[in-house]
Design brief:
Elements (H helix, E strand, L loop, with lengths): L17 H7 L19 H15 L14
Length: about 70
């Protein structure tokens, strides 16, 4: 690909989606409803624990009277 001196070194967003690029090249693309088989997904309980802990960290520190304090 040849680029002009005004665009060389600049990033530009893609104009086509991955699905459109595959179709233009005649490559099969998985259907939208297909979910890749992933083994070892974390259990839902673990994800819930992470979200709960993040929520706790977002709460103000008790007894801080509005002063900024960092938790370790």
């Amino acid at each position: 690909m040849i680029t002009s001196s005004t665009t060389a070194g600049h990033l530009a967003p893609q104009t086509l989606t991955p699905r459109e690029r595959a179709a233009a090249r005649g490559i099969d693309f998985p259907p939208l409803a297909a979910r890749p088989l992933v083994y070892g997904d974390p259990p839902l309980r673990a994800l819930r624990e992470v979200l709960d802990r993040l929520s706790e960290l977002a709460l103000p520190v008790p007894g801080s009277n509005g002063a900024v304090e960092h938790r370790n």
